[in-house]
Write a structure and sequence with these properties.
homodimer, nine-stranded mixed β-sheet, 16 helices, 30 strands, 28% strand
Chain lengths: 587, 587
């Protein structure tokens, strides 16, 4: 929110009493507020837009000639988790900002699950140096699946209320429907405390429809980013929830939902864009929110609608339209200069009145700050991990048992609950590479209880070796998938040795690994280095037989205990819709 | 904002754990959120909407058969001053609620100018008993014209910040552009304090265009209800301000602006409706916000657009879309049942889940509360008022002088600054009924200094007598217009005797009067009685020659020192744009 001083300075610059800092002349302004495009100049002083009046004639310290380019407001990602990029907020800048995203509404639930309020605070230390705006969607689910998992920290209603008062906090992050449908007091308190502060409650209504969705919406939840088909989108709009159309690495909803908008002639004022989880490399090659916009336009959406969805619609939703989301007087000067407003490739990105990126590159890298030592030591194994840690005991000594299997759906985070007959040898069930039914385990890594949860999964297609990762949504214990217990053990021990990270192991040998010291989730390295290392590691996973686009991102989501049908935590297999632990064997 | 208990009850009703209070079955739901109309049922519990799911099958204590009527959200007046109806909040209910307005965003600046924060508090005492919702736009201008007028009270930045924290307060009320353009610290503090609370700053940008408008908008002002032509509307949208299209008694902007929307194919999501100042009798005969909607549709606006403007658009603007403005789960159940959604004549009005009006009448009158005695004694004349109090001294003993004249524009509150030659007799200037140049005076009525400001006005056409009124915007001293000083004196003394009110005097005799004891602005009587008395008084004014539609409303606005070109206060004539006092004679 702007201060008295800021307001006064903006007025004085507009009156010509103070000289403006910057004039961007000769642009075609994409005015998302009035819905027009027209030629004018833009005056900026102290981070804010002073005037867009074509007839204004104010002095400025610096002049940029727009050469007739379109001036588009900086783009807003309405919902994302930046931990899944593996990058620190500082390193992420070099990836998202050149694509034109100047505001990230980030649910930092991953670091919160690892390190709580203290972890969140540590992440915000760089906030004033970033060439983009980080707004906080305060995690509602730390832990996500209470009672079903071990996490590093807990954010109760009191902690959430406290964090909600931070100036960066704009909403309560993606509230799980089961918390409402099972009338969980703690979560209702979190909702009430958020609404009392006139902030927004973000939804997460995967698959919910009809009366369940009505009940969910009735509790005060304002949006959903989990629509995967048109019916879901239409139902959310009907119950008064806004829709964030997501295009992430594995969840790609733009095509289907934008076609739905066109087929149903929907008004777009209750619709906006997000990425949720998108890999740094894909952001770099394909784009970020600018990709959502350009793709929507390509599909036939009116460019003004598409740009509004990426800018002012999100600003209004978060009740910040007086601050961001349009190039209009008084707003923070987040401006992209592009040749073609139908294909947003920014030549220049201006954030709060400063040119921060040109031609796809940051003007200056944002150096990674000094994270506290404690946040770099969050991995502690209570018990030694050995191949025996991963034994899956059967109810018989030999023969066959029927087990629950997490059946992955390509490019989705939801999965199917299958059951499969598995051979038992010496009382144990082992991976079956032929039928691609591999052992999956989650190893508790906060030094609390040394739990190891064991399940089976279809979809990775590893023919040998194992992969492990200390980001396992949302509890972020160490998740490991493998064809044999020895490699699984070696992989987990390598991740622990790194104090968090990911690795590929085969025949007891570490083929490759990367350390992620910040909470076991994020690197301290620049983006390019992290992306190259990740590319190599994904390549190594493919060398073992995996055919996925993003093997490690899939690994990090496969065990999620809140996304149907099945999950896996350090405590065991989870029946998500029933919200309970189940045995590995079908009884 | 809803409490934890409310949220829990709504959820439990939706889950069938609690029985709903009300089911409205068989309606065509006008879903302003999704932009659709479809058949369904509406379930309500504890004031809130539980479900609108067609397949839901919940039990309810009471069932209303909608008989296929349209269910439209309760209408929102985005900006009004209810003091100009002369009715108490309780009495006003019987006029506005049967027309379908369930939320009034009221700038109570009149009572605030008379009695400050204490006066505002007194007005809110009935708020919980009203069959509509009163939201407060906290007056930014008490006084409106500092230094140029005497008011009963002052609301400085500290008082405004304090009132802004009240739960009913949604915005800072209509900020005068001169306060921004002259960089007045006190008002910039008021803006900053409002934005810091994530609330809205309402504008009042009469006639401002171009760079002046850019500067005004740049200070954080979010809307304007003073557009009288299409160019003004377009310019406000361009600078990121929303537009309230007003249809009051004297200011009628719907026709021109709605035609502008249609001609320019404007999106309507940044546009809403208000009345600003509308007489009770006109609300009763013509309608309230339902008139704005129906007229807009008649002019060719899409019914969904028009109804959104009157409901969800205003709710979103005031950042209350989770509470009001749509018939969607969790929102307060404000619902109209109408036969025709193109012509909103409510058969039933439901406010917070209760039927409050049927077929144009309240189910139960809302009894006027016990206002404190002090608020009924706000008129004190410091000096005795006699005919001599109104002498207009000229700069010469005889001959002619040129004076400034307030030249009224029919059906507008703005006026033209004319100059006219007037005959001087015995060193005095008197009313000239032939040329309709009548004496106008403002008499200080708070017992502070006994000032009498004198000017001349064209437009009333009185041939004899005088009219006086203790509502004189915005300071609310006693304003009087007359053909002779004796009748002017008698009229002012009558208003003082009544402790506030209005009267018509001729030949020293009071032809009619009405007391307005609440702050000298509002009656304690029921609406019907006040309207009849006012009709009679307007008739009496017409019997003296006045040809205006609403003589007393015109009288209350004619001297306003903030609306161009000229104003008059107890301190004298005001040049509005220059914001300074000027002499009566042209020098």
């Amino acid at each position: 929110m702007r201060t008295y001083e800021e307001i006064r300075n903006t007025i004085k610059a507009g009156l010509g009493i103070h000289k403006c800092d910057l004039k961007i002349e000769n642009v075609k302004l994409v005015n998302v507020f009035s819905g027009e495009v027209y030629e004018t100049n833009i005056y900026i002083k102290n981070k804010r837009i002073v005037s867009i009046e074509p007839q204004a004639d104010l002095e400025a310290e610096e002049i940029i000639d727009g050469h007739g380019q379109y001036a588009v407001p900086g783009l807003i990602d309405a919902h994302m988790h930046f931990e899944s990029t593996m990058l620190s907020p500082e390193a992420l800048a070099s990836v998202v900002v050149p694509q034109g995203t100047t505001t990230l509404c980030a649910d930092l639930m991953e670091i919160a699950n690892v390190a709580g309020e203290k972890g969140l605070k540590a992440m915000l230390e760089s906030i004033d140096r970033l060439p983009y705006r980080m707004l906080i969607e305060v995690s509602s689910r730390v832990p996500t699946a209470p009672g079903l998992e071990t996490t590093g920290a807990v954010l109760g209603a009191n902690e959430v209320a406290e964090i909600m008062d931070w100036p960066e906090s704009v909403s309560l992050g993606e509230l799980d429907p089961s918390k409402i449908l099972f009338v969980k007091d703690e979560y209702i308190h979190k909702v009430a405390d958020t609404l009392a502060r006139r902030k927004i409650v973000n939804g997460h209504a995967i698959g919910r429809l009809g009366q369940e969705l009505n009940v969910y919406a009735s509790s005060g939840i304002s949006d959903d980013h989990e629509c995967v088909n048109v019916r879901e989108m239409l139902e959310r709009l009907k119950v008064g929830m806004k829709v964030f159309i997501r295009e992430g690495s594995s969840e790609r909803n733009v095509d289907e939902l934008v076609k739905g908008i066109l087929d149903h002639h929907l008004r777009t004022d209750n619709i906006m864009f997000c990425t949720d989880d998108k890999h740094a490399r894909e952001i770099q090659t394909e784009g970020h929110i600018n990709y959502n916009v350009s793709r929507a336009i390509e599909l036939g959406l009116d460019p003004m609608d598409a740009i509004q969805m990426a800018t002012v619609n999100a600003a209004k939703h978060f009740r910040l339209e007086d601050e961001i989301g349009s190039i209009t007087p008084g707003r923070l000067a987040d401006i992209l200069l592009v040749d073609d407003w139908r294909n947003l490739k920014p030549n220049v990105v201006i954030f709060e009145g400063e040119v921060v990126a040109e031609n796809g590159k940051l003007r200056e890298e944002c150096p990674v700050g000094n994270y506290p030592e404690w946040i770099k030591h969050t991995v502690t194994l209570k018990h030694e991990i050995t191949p025996e840690s991963f034994q899956a005991a059967a109810s018989c000594e030999a023969g066959e048992v029927e087990i629950h299997v997490i059946d992955m759906i390509p490019r989705q985070i939801i999965n199917t609950h299958s059951t499969e007959k598995m051979k038992v040898e010496q009382g144990r069930i082992t991976s079956d590479t032929e039928r691609d039914i591999l052992k999956l385990a989650v190893v508790e890594r906060y030094g609390k209880n040394g739990n190891v949860g064991i399940g089976f999964v279809r979809g990775f297609r590893l023919k040998q070796g194992a992969m492990a990762y200390s980001m396992s949504h949302d509890h972020h214990n160490i998740v490991v998938v493998g064809t044999n217990d020895a490699d699984m053990s070696a992989a987990v021990n390598e991740v622990a040795r790194l104090n968090g990270g990911l690795c590929v192991v085969c025949g007891g040998r570490v083929l490759g690994s990367m350390e992620l010291p910040i909470g076991g989730l994020m690197s301290e390295k620049p983006a390019e280095e992290v992306m190259s290392q990740l590319d190599e590691l994904n390549e190594k996973a493919r060398s073992l037989g995996c055919e996925m686009d993003a093997p490690f991102m899939s690994l990090s989501f496969v065990s999620l205990p809140t996304v149907p049908d099945l999950g896996l935590t350090d405590k065991g297999l989870v029946d998500v819709l029933a919200h309970k632990l189940i045995d590995l064997e079908v009884r």
